[in-house]
Request: fold
Amino acid sequence: MEYRNLGRSGLQVSRLCLGTMTFGEADAGSFMHQVGCDEPTSFAIMDRALDAGVQFWDTADVYGQDGLSERVIGRWFERSGRRDEVVLATKFRFRMGQGPNGTGASRRRIVAACEASLRRLNTDRIDLYQIHMQDLDTPEEETLAALDDLVRAGKVLYVGASNYAAYRLADAMWISETRNLARFVSLQMQYSLVHRELEREHVPLSLRHGLGIVPWSPLAGGFLTGKFRKDQPPPDGTRLAKWSERLKGFDDDRHWRILGALDTVAEQASATPAAVALAWLLHKPGVTSVLFGARTVEQLEDNLRAAELALSAEQVATLDEASAFPLGYPYDFMKRIQGRW
Reply:
């Protein structure tokens, strides 16, 4: 496994990041009901991932139900005694309690969320604490100052952002710099062959400010695994079989063209479509580590192959062309004049 600095920080993380959203069996009523894996399977996945060198793990307080994913990880830490081998990332922002202060990114909410995550995770610090989405109701200065306090207290070592608009992210970086606050070192965003909108603003911004990009949903909810075919029903047991409306959104020429190119490159590289889709992201500028999930050890093993898969420039170009998306104004205007934006 290769390791990279997370953005401009000195923190070394594996090229692949283990997403733990599926850890634990959520009850009916949770959005993760019937799409997770039981605790013994979660433990086996964590054992194998760490043995394979995947030491960067990501979770969030809302994953599962009542902090289920964090609690599963915390029990694994207690059982294994391997906490110090893991670069542990979690997130806060979405509703975890009742009342107006049970959600958001205010100082009060952040401090309470951090303490709760530390208890569930059975640890004394969070290596990377990320705001799960910008909070339009809270000044960015307040959020960043609260995170800075947690860093100074040693409860959080690094901070990151997720699901931010580019304008808000630029504001956050400026506030941190001018007020000498802990700065974001990473940006976790949806990014895949299907979703490339990030390339308009966020990728150039991240390169400019030294943010390590950590793509989430790199397989587009399973669409890029090679299990789906045009005019055929989704395989039973897949997430997109349950989330059928999302699958309908993929039923157009561009998405089937992406799958065709993915199949072609996978055959050339003697790899699975999933491994190729992950490897494509590892070839993109600014990407530090690609976040992937696994509900079985077999899925984990398949995804691990992406770390060693080197795509040729021609293969990357094939995938780039198939997944090309409308730039929109003013990006297409700038590209027409200067050849780039």
